[in-house]
Specification:
Layout: E1 7-11, H1 15-25, E2 29-36, H2 41-47, E3 53-61, E4 64-73, E5 93-96, H3 100-109, E6 113-114, E7 127-133, E8 139-145
Parallel strand pairs: 1-4, 5-8
Antiparallel strand pairs: 2-3, 3-4, 6-7, 7-8
Length: 156
């Protein structure tokens, strides 16, 4: 039986930068850190990599977890382009907020880039959302649920 999503993982060449971003600015806490060296057959089999080696941090915010990986082998490299949200694959990480205007202002003042400011609720919708990017260019959605009976759930 599948119970739900436990965590999302991000590979990054700048683990220190992303760690500071997610813990300092977004409020995640580090709950575990570690590494593995080349020659770990079980991790190679699980990841589908050969002779992998990496450092990692597990972060928690509420009941959600985020893993940050910096691979030494094969080395994590910076993306050559900013991945558009229309490209196949996971498109964004969504964080639920209680005051989207205040969070947008706080994060923008700290240097987070947003695609646009939060738009007002359009008639018939029960949420407000805005997309921004972390220091690696990964898309983060801020989502504010504005009604109690929302298909995505209720307030945190």
């Amino acid at each position: 039986m599948i119970h739900g999503i436990h965590h999302v993982a991000i590979a990054t060449p700048g683990a220190d930068v992303l760690l500071a971003f997610y813990t300092g600015l977004m409020g995640f806490e580090v709950v575990a850190s570690g590494s593995w060296e080349q020659g770990n057959r079980s991790l190679d089999a699980m990841t589908g990599l050969s002779d992998s080696a990496a450092d990692y941090h597990v972060l928690r915010l509420g009941s959600s977890y985020l893993e940050l990986f910096r691979y030494h082998n094969p080395q994590t490299r910076a993306a050559q382009e900013r991945r558009p949200v229309s490209k196949q694959g996971i498109t964004h990480l969504c964080l639920q907020v209680t005051d989207i205007e205040a969070e947008h202002a706080r994060l923008a003042a700290a240097g987070m880039e947003f695609h646009a400011p939060p738009a007002p609720c359009v008639q018939g919708t029960r949420h407000r959302a805005v997309y921004g990017r972390d220091p690696d260019g990964n898309v983060i959605e801020l989502l504010e649920i504005v009604t109690q009976n929302h298909p995505f759930g209720t307030h945190i």
